[in-house]
Model the fold of this input.
Amino acid sequence: MQTDELANRRWLAIPSSLRKNLEENVYCSSCGVTTIVNYYVDSEDYQIILKGHCKNCDQKVARVID
Ligand SMILES: [Zn+2]
Done:
């Protein structure tokens, strides 16, 4: 778990209802659209990326927040 502090602050600045919506719209290669759980916040090319696991199958999933 290496949360990027700046990315984390940017993530937390997003309204919680929108964050919940984003958490629930993550693509898993096994399940399709799923919910990300146990994630941490990272960043790449100035974009926020959530990295965690699929709620259904525990496979690693990630979501870029743009
Ligand atoms: Zn899955």
Observations:
- The longest strand covers residues 36-44.
- The beta strands are 26-28, 32-34, 36-44, 47-54, 60-65.
- The CA atoms of residues 2 and 40 lie 7 Å apart.
